[in-house]
Each structure stands twice: as C-alpha cells, then as structure tokens.
Amino acid sequence: MTTEIEMQYHDLIKSFLADVNTNCASHLHKDRVLIPIIASITQGITTALADQVETCLAAGIEPEILLEVVYQLTPVAGTLKVQQALPAIQAVLTKHQFRPSPSATNADENYGASIQADLYGTEIKNLLKDLPDEAGDFVPQALTNHFFNDFYNRSRLDVRDRERYELLALITLNVDFQIKAHARGSLRAGNSESELVWATIQLLPYIGFPLVINSVQVIHQAVSQSK
C-alpha cells in the first residue's frame, strides 16, 4: 500500500521523471527501459525491479536480451547484487511463461580476450604490475578470463552494447578511473558521444545530477582526446 508520504514524494518528482523520460525517448530506444534495471541492480536496490522488468517486456525487449544485460553486470557490480535481483526477475518472466534458453557462444574461446586487447591493450596489466606475490599477474588474467571471455563470448549482446552498459554501471558506482577508461573503450567499440551522453542522462533520476554532470564531461573529454 502506498503511503501518504510516498504519494507526496511522487507528486514532487513526477515532472522531473517525465522531463527526463520525454527528452531521452527522442534519443534512446531500447536503452531507455534497460537503464533503470542497470541502475537498480548496480546499487543493490530491487524494490522497483519487477515493475522495471514489466516495462521492458511491454516495450518489446526480448527476455533473453534483458537477462544478458543483467548477467553482464556481474563483473562490474559483483555476484551478490546480481543474484539478489534474480528472484524478482524470475517471478516476472515466469508470470509471462518465459523459459530461458542457453546463449550461443563464440567458437573462439579467446574472442573476449581479443576484444579486450583491441579496446584496452594492456592497460590493467601495466597498472597492476608492481603488486606483490603474483597478484599483479592474477588480477589482469582474471579480468581477461572472467570479464571478457566469460561474457563477451556470449552472442546475445554485441560488443558495442556491452561496453555501453558496463560504462553506465561504472558511472552508477562512481569509479572515476574506470569511467574514464570505459568511456574511451565505449567510443572505440562504436558508440557515439550522443548515445553515451543521453544514456547517462537517463540515469539522472537514479543517481542524481553530480554523477551525471561529471560523467558526461568525462565522455566529452574522451571524444576530444580521441580526435
């Protein structure tokens, strides 16, 4: 049951939500309904998740794509947040009588590693090379195996989409170094500045103005540096 305080708050913010959604709708397509799910799971907040999944399905998002976006959050937000979200998602999909099928995988087991090399080179390996007791070897190798190979080898999302969704999760987490790196990676993967900026603006109701303003500046600077 919605409380009086919740109703008052909804009345306060409804013009804000409508303004963001209306303006983003003219620049974004499927991302507009997927981004709230990315924000919810990355923040570990599942109260609105069932409604967000219903909105995705109503907008014509294939359940397999929705699930792939959710799974892709694992190496960014962690297993606990993703696992916490799965029962609410499963309940909605079960109501719609959807049963997930396994995703096809790339024949090349190192496809993800090759994408990492193309987009990021040896950036993380160089960054962590001085860590003690072989930690500087393990973390970059785990990143390659379990960020890129485990997920990028799955065929339901292309690299361009994966990079964009990861960037949005990193923005939600407010991790400055990674936002800068993945802004560059997202651009190299074929995303335009407009796509990344408007996708970040769609995060406004969920993460607030400070993170969005900082992040769109980072994206704009990454474009300028790439010229």
Automatic annotation (TrEMBL):
Domain Carboxymuconolactone decarboxylase-like: 140-219
Signal peptide interval: none
InterPro entries listed in its UniProt record: 4CMD/NDH-1_regulator, AhpD-like, CMD-like
SUPFAM superfamilies recorded: AhpD-like
Protein name: Carboxymuconolactone decarboxylase-like domain-containing protein
Annotated source species: Lactobacillus xylocopicola
